[in-house]
Amino acid sequence: MSSKPDGGPAFPDPAPREDGHPGMPLRDWLLGRAFQGLLSNSYIMRAAMEAATQEKRTPEEAIGLAAHSFVNELMAQRKQEPK
User: Fold this and answer.
1) Whose CA, among 1, 2, 41, 71, lies 20 to 30 Å from 8?
2) Does any domain span residue 33?
3) Rounded CA gap, 4 and 64, in Å?
């Protein structure tokens, strides 16, 4: 689990749930979208394979790090936006 702020629920439900769980965190939802986009792009997949080889990582690690990097930046930018 990440110690980073999760952004609250991605799809807040105004009705309280019995288990008290507010729903999927925004960070997790964004990660899913980031992974989907990265995995659907053959150019990015080739670049990840090359980077993984150079950095002695698996392609999955390279894609995971890229997705988390994108989401961390999105969450940081979201904090800076005026409400």
Assistant:
1) 41
2) yes
3) 16
